[in-house]
Amino acid sequence: MQISQLLRGKNPEVATIDGAESVRTALAVLAEKGIGALVVSPDGRRIEGIVSERDVARELHARGASLLTDPVSSVMTADVHTCPPEARVDDLARTMTDARVRHVPVTVDGALVGIVSIGDVVKARLDELEEERRQLVEYIQTP
After folding, report:
1. What is the full DSSP assignment across the chain?
2. pLDDT higher than 80, residue 23
3. Confidence (pLDDT) at 143
4. Strand 111-117 to strand 37-40: parallel, antiparallel, or no bridges (unpaired)?
5. Measuring CA to CA, how many Å separate 22 from each of 53, 54, 83, 102, 111?
6. What's the pLDDT score for residue 42?
7. C-alpha distances in Å from residue 111, one per residue of 71, 79, 85, 131, 133
């Protein structure tokens, strides 16, 4: 399965935030949308970084509560793993596992077109396994 197929079943909106916004604002957006990461982008297309709950938690531990008024750019991960829509879900799963990342923006010619979470990858893989199981049962039960 390709990432493009996975994206078809998702909301096409990608939650972004400007790097100048406060960490407190980022946390509010994460909570409001019930998501774990925001793409840091000034225009919703160009990726400057990604900020996750994990990024904030680690920095909060290191720097304390004053972090909440700092800009998102001070806690974001600037080296963002991305993938094209043609990438295979299995390959992305390996990348996410090896790089220990939970969210990967999808890009076309450098522009943001979607985002995939580890939960999306796991669900896609479970759906594939269920379909394989169904086909095997059908094959075995067919006279």
Report:
1. -BHHHHHHTS-S---EE-TTSBHHHHHHHHHHHT-SEEEE-SSSSS--EEEEHHHHHHHHHHH-GGGGGSBGGGTSBSS---B-TTSBHHHHHHHHHHHT-SEEEEEETTEEEEEEEHHHHHHHHHHHHHHHHHHHHHHHH--
2. yes
3. 73
4. unpaired
5. 14, 16, 28, 22, 24
6. 94
7. 23, 16, 12, 33, 37
Tokens of 51: 């900020």
Q: Are the beta carbons of 114 and 39 closer than 8 angstroms?
A: no
Neighbours of 3 (CB within 10 A): 24
CA distance 112 to 37: 14
Per the CB < 8 A criterion, the answer to whether 14 and 44 are in contact is yes
Look at the chain and count its residues: 143
pLDDT digits (tens, 9 = 90+) for 94-126: 999 999 999 999 999 989 999 999 999 998 888
**C-alpha angle 66-42-62 in degrees, rounded to nearest 5:** 25
Mean pLDDT of the chain: 92
